Structures are given as structure tokens and as C-alpha cells.
Amino acid sequence: MQFEAFFIQSGTAEKSQRLYIFYPSQQTVVRGLVLYIHPLADEMNKTRRMVSLQARALAEAGFSVLQIDLLGCGDSAGDFGDATWQHWIDDVVQAHHWLRKKSLAPLWLWGLRGGCLLAVEATRQLNDNCHLIFWQPASSGKLLLQQFLRLKLAGDLLDGQGKGVMQAMRQQLAQGQSVEIAGYNLSGGLAQGLELATLTPPQPSGASGCVVWFEISARAETSLSPGALQSIAQWQAAGFDTQGQLVHGPAFWQSHDIEEIPDLIKATTEVIAAMSI
């Protein structure tokens, strides 16, 4: 399948190029537009393969899919430490404007892990009816930030320097300073925005969009986790047509080897196609 990879200028400042990868619909009629929003730091690298496979499957099913590398991520300009949460939201909003010019078809924002939080934040700023696809969504930015900071803590514990590290990092970030974690410079602006991000429905309530929620588990569970069920009920109460589905497979966003979950790709394509009729 052919796809287009190119750079888009984001404003006029230095370090303003963003990489876009566009998979055009392989059907005569475009059934929908899908904007993918990647997860945080190294999770982005580990999930490239799965995202590419899913984008191709959606394109074959009649959807046009756009991937974007956010500021300081992947092949886009800048360093990770240059990014703030608002920078990333602005990147998503600009990508939405670019993609919307392609078609008036229904729009889906597809997030993975922390990308789900960005998708929700972006919908608050878009004057558009956006449907949402969540892959293993982070329940809150605060929890995701805590998990990321623990990578630094774990490394310092191995070096015998763990005492007081978490408190010191939080103080630095609160003062607007950057913290180096697992090879990434986390800025205070990114940490502060992430900590405030939630997966709650955009206001005002009474929306009519669709939400497709996928949870992945390597264990033998037969139902979604209590946290996922509670969040899905919240979205349903806010007026969203929300479906949740458990898919068995490895945690491909954090596994040492590059993993694939064909069942997740198949289920995502089928559900979105069925809801786009």
C-alpha cells in the first residue's frame, strides 16, 4: 500500500516542522477520517509497528488515516525537552485542520495510552464532532506522569541514590525546570499539563459522538477492568455512544520485543466500520 510521508510547517519559529504520514482511503468513497495520536516517550517507538498495521487496515476498509509526530518526538523537529502539553495539543489541532480539508467524512481521533488524553484535550478545542478510539487509555495524566517519573527513581535506586529523588524531581518540575528520565528531558511545562489531563468527557455534556474503548490484557480476564467500566459508564452518561472491548495480547507498548496483536487490529477495524455505516 502506498502512503505519503512529508513535513508540515507549524508556525514560523525554529524547530517547527512536523512529520505527517498519510494513508489515503483505498476505497472510492471515504468512509471516515482517522487522526492518530501517539503515546509518551519510548512507548511511541515500541508501538510503531502496530500503528502502521492498523493504519493500513483502516485505509483498506475505506478510511483515510493521518499519523503525526508531535513536537520533539520521532522525526519531527525539536527535542523532547522543548515540548509542553499545550504544544502537543496545538499539533493535534493543526493536524485536524489539515486532515479535515481532505473530506467532510466523519472524523475519528485515535489515541494510544497518553495519546488518548491528548485526543480528549483536543476535542475541547475543535469545533467539530469527533469520535474517539482509545487503545489502552491512561486513566489520568497524573498517573501516567507518576509512572514515567518512576523510571528515573528505579534507575537511581539501582545506583543507591534513590532517597528523596521523587520529591526532588517534582520540585524541579514545579519550578519550570527539566528533568532527565530514561534519556528524555521532561520539561516543567509538559509535566504540569500532563498532570492536569483527564479522560473525562468534554463539556458540555449531551454530545452525540462515538467512543470505542479497547483494553489489552495478557491474562485470562473475560471482562474489562473495573476502572474501564466506570469510565465507560461516565462517557455513556455524558451522551456518547460508548463501546468497550477486551482483547487478549501482550502489552506491546512496553514489551522488550516489538509485538503484534492481530486480534486488536481486526476488532478495531470491524467496530469502526460498523459504527460508520
Q: How would you describe the overall organization of this protein?
A:
The chain has 277 residues and is an alpha/beta fold. The protein folds into two domains: 4-140 and 202-275, Alpha/Beta hydrolase fold, catalytic domain (Rossmann fold, 3-Layer(aba) Sandwich), CATH 3.40.50; 141-196, no CATH class. The protein has helices at 42-46, 48-60, 85-100, 114-123, 141-158, 165-174, 188-196, 226-237, 262-275, and strands spanning 4-9, 17-23, 32-37, 63-68, 107-112, 130-135, 179-181, 184-186, 210-217, 241-248. The strands form two sheets. An eight-stranded mixed beta sheet has the order 1-2-4-3-5-6-9-10, with helices on both faces. The chain has a two-stranded antiparallel ribbon with strand order 7-8. Helix 2 (48-60) runs parallel beside helix 9 (262-275), helix 3 crosses helix 4 (114-123) and helix 5 packs across helix 7 (188-196). The chain starts with a strand and ends with a helix.
Keywords:
9 helices; alpha/beta
| Shape descriptor | globular
Indicate the radius of gyration in whole angstroms: 18 Å
CATH architecture of the largest domain: 3-Layer(aba) Sandwich
Note the gap between the termini. Answer: 24 Å
What is the CATH first-level class name of the largest domain? Alpha Beta
Number of strands: 10
The CATH topology assignment of the largest domain is: Rossmann fold
Helical residues, percent: 25-40%
Tally of separate helices: 9
What's the rounded overall pLDDT mean?
90
Our count of domains comes out at 2
Most strands sheet: 8 strands, mixed
Give the SSE order as H and E letters: EEEHHEHEHEHHEEHEHEH
Strand order of the largest sheet: 1-2-4-3-5-6-9-10
CATH superfamily of the largest domain: Alpha/Beta hydrolase fold, catalytic domain
How large is the share of residues in beta strands?
15-25%
Structural class: alpha/beta
Low-confidence stretches: none
